[in-house]
Fold this sequence. Notes:
The chain has helices at residues 19-23, 48-61, and strands spanning 41-44, 65-68. It is α+β, with helices and mostly antiparallel strands. Helix 2 (48-61) links the parallel strand 1 (41-44) and strand 2 (65-68).
Amino acid sequence: MYDPLVNSHPNNQPFAPSYWATTQALGAATAPLSGRQHTDVAIIGGGYTGLLTAYYLASEFNIDCHVLEANQVGFGASARNAGFVLKGSGRLGYAA
Ligand SMILES: Cc1cc2nc3c(=O)[nH]c(=O)nc-3n(C[C@H](O)[C@H](O)[C@H](O)COP(=O)(O)OP(=O)(O)OC[C@H]3O[C@@H](n4cnc5c(N)ncnc54)[C@H](O)[C@@H]3O)c2cc1C
């Protein structure tokens, strides 16, 4: 099971058997980038952080941005979220 504190990269890792992954039809992975590409903002990671950043940059500021996802959109913690409203927690301290 992928753990960002243990595994070096999310590429080719299986989805966690989350509610999301077992109830939604997941889209097919897109082809890797090739050649030279241009964008004003390249966002690494298609979780809540990356997708909302892209959404607001595009919708509020009309900025050309692209999300680069190593696995599939929703692969990471965002698709495993339990839905509780938390003020911030984690296994790493704030300094880390
Ligand atoms: C089981 C579980 C339950 C949770 N429950 C709650 C909850 O109830 N309430 C709450 O507030 N929070 C909860 N959280 C925490 C919350 O889900 C995360 O803080 C949040 O989803 C993080 O979003 P993110 O977009 O920053 O990261 P992620 O959703 O992890 O997205 C990061 C993305 O980046 C991609 N990526 C990583 N490296 C690269 C790379 N080199 N190149 C391209 N792509 C890359 C990954 O594949 C992944 O898709 C939970 C987390 C887990 C794991």
